[in-house]
Design goal:
Layout (H helix, E strand, L loop, with lengths): L7 H20 L3 H22 L5 H22 L5 H17 L8
Helix pairs in contact: 1-3, 1-4, 2-3, 2-4, 3-4
Length: 109
Amino acid sequence: MPEGRVLPDVESARRDWDDAYRRFEDEMREPRQVQSLAAQLTAVTDELRKRIGSTFTLRELTDEYARADAWARHVVGERAPAPDWVRTLSLVEGAAFHLYARGALDYSP
């Protein structure tokens, strides 16, 4: 792959993450949601850190994103359950990946 070229699935995942992060920020404007959403985000981010580490590429992060549904539900259910947490799981998951992507070796805004 030529340097600087982003694979379509990586670009698609990044769009998903960006959208989820915007929706997450909107949900965080609701005072009743702040504490539970923050706890869910922390739980997913902590698990992501365990699974991928601190040195990674966007390709590796995208690959883990494809597997995240298999572990994110369990992680949030165990570590940060709150009323209606299943409704916000996908946006919390995407927001965590959005924020984590900034640490990728090949990240560019």
